[in-house]
Amino acid sequence: MLETSLVKVIGRGSTVNLTIDDIEDISVVYQHLNDHLANNRFMYSTGIINVNVGRRILVKEEIQKIKEIIESESNVTVARFWCDPSTLSEALSESNGFGVDLSDPSRKSQPQQAIVIQHNDPATYSDSVSPIDQDDIGDPLVSDDDFKPEPHDAPEYLDVLIRATGNSDEELHYDTEYVSSDISEVIDEDSLDDLVGFPVKDTPESGDVHLTNKTEELIDAYRRNEALFIKTTCRSGEVIKYPGDIVVLADVNPGAELVADGDIIIFGNLRGFAHAGASGDIQSVIVASNLNAHRIQISDCVGVAPGKSKQSKSRGSQPKIAFIRRNSIYVATYTGRFAGYSGGVLYEG
Amino acid sequence: MKGRTIVITSGKGGVGKTTTTANIGTGLAMRGHRVVVIDTDIGLRNLDVVMGLENRIVYDLVDIIEGNCKMHQGMIKDKNNQDLYLIPAAQTRDKNCINEEQVKELCAKLESEFDYVLIDCPAGIEQGFKNAIAAAEEAIIVTTPEVSAIRDADRVIGLLAAAEIHNPKLIINRIRPGMVKRGEMMDKDDIVDLLAVEVLGMVPADDKLITATNQGVPVIHDKRAVSGAAFSRITARIDGDDVPLMDLDPKTSIMGKVKEIMGMNRGAYSHA
């Protein structure tokens, strides 16, 4: 991470994010941006760049000016302007509750940055009661050096948000509704396909990804760093991949696939395919109120349900938990804990 | 008032979409509504055959969409009903020769003239399916009590939800009350348990339906046929009447009761 005090640069893969300070006067920002680009010209030989505007509300002229500076001082192209949704909602709630003028340059930057960190770091996020109520808002241990301007660990497609459209005559709107309703426009289709929806291989026209109504739930969950809650039936052909835990409050029908890096909890009937610990975690489990799946997988272990005689008895029975023991999958009656099961039926066909 | 556009679909072929479309269309027209049924199965048209209108076809859906004829020239009036029209599919073209936008445009015009626009969807989930569901606001899923048909119905319900068509209604076709009773066929509850959608009606397997279809007269005209009666009730439900689902086999044998008590009617099939 390179930074001057007002311009911060984070490179991740082929994407470069540039964060501009949202407190200082815009002309000072212009100056810093100019200096930074001039001093680091070797870094900006080619490519595209995203600009995070933080909490600052920019008017069209300002956006154009920033774009102009970047594109004239370097060879990169500005792909879009955006801000982090949590920063945004925070800024909005603060401005409503306390009447703080967001564009007020005299406002001390430190407290606001501290709040931002609370939201960006999952570890501290869970401890924070409410960003506004924090007593340690001005905690000096959070120095500028620690300041993370954006959740850059979050996947790229969550860098959703605001695109500065050139034809907008108004101020750049921080419209959260836009984020949720038109999410399909912002997410690029390749990453979306990894995420959720009907896989391309099943549809003849590749790239024609069907958005399911679960996409929005997924994006939201990811943003909050929580398990993915699915409230509708997962139907045949649906593939849901999630890099955390998945909780399904409905049935998982035959032909549906759930792939989670963490655990999978199903309140309904599991008849489809569930794969927990997909990134290799053998501690992961699958819990289902009705475990009627023929085949399940945890990490690399594939479990196949035993013969039909045992299957039919399980209809309408107790919740079951599937776990790995000695490189095999066992299924036991769920007794309200996640570990320490000893018995169970071996799932090996 | 703007008409209702309903797509009749199933995913799997041969479950009775076309027969259902013909009967519901006829039934709604018999109830005094202005109805148009559209066959979108381009290349494999047969709604016209089921309705007995094959000989009257001059223009078809593709002709209307491509502007080779006026919309009204392409609509065939039913033999028995003044208020029922058919737009047949083209037989010599394929499903890719029309697109979703064109179907939407056509249906928008039809909705202003008709109370019901019923779209008979082709089997599969390719372009033909996309065309058929493009204009629809409601959907009726036809399935038979077979695992394969139900699996496809499940997939189609998912695709419909992705296309913002929510809460489709289910018609269970070709149900055999006797087999259900003996536990050899899935019953309504098993199917609803899996698909989690509202049941619009159940149509028993009926020889009269096959005869009627072959003669090109929708079975709903035959008051004595059980399948015709089932379609009448389905039509009434679509139209907003509150008709309870009928027990398809009210006759219960003594032996059946004994078996029931002894718990011998366990399902012999598997969902997995």
What tags apply to this protein structure?
heterodimer, A: 349 residues, alpha/beta, Pectate Lyase C-like, 7-stranded mixed beta sheet, 6-stranded mixed beta sheet, 10 helices, 18 strands, 23% strand, elongated, B: 272 residues, Rossmann fold, 8-stranded mixed beta sheet, 8 strands, disordered C terminus
Short description:
The complex is a heterodimer of chains A (349) and B (272). By secondary structure, chain A is α/β, with parallel strands linked by helices.
What does this structure look like?
The complex is a heterodimer of chains A (349) and B (272). With 349 residues, chain A is α/β, with parallel strands linked by helices. Chain A folds into 2 domains: 2-185, no CATH class; 194-346, Pectate Lyase C-like. Chain A is 26% helix and 23% strand. Chain A is built from 10 helices and 18 strands. In chain A, a hairpin with a 2-residue loop joins β2 and β3. In chain A, α1 (26-39) packs parallel to α2 (60-73). In chain A, 35% of the residues are buried. Residues 96-210 of chain A have low confidence and may be disordered. Chain B has one domain (4-261): Rossmann fold (3-Layer(aba) Sandwich), CATH 3.40.50.300. Chain B has an 8-stranded mixed β-sheet, sandwiched between helices. Chain B is of the alpha/beta class. In chain B, α1 (17-30) packs across α10 (226-238) and α4 runs parallel beside α5 (127-134). Chain B contains 11 helices and 8 strands.
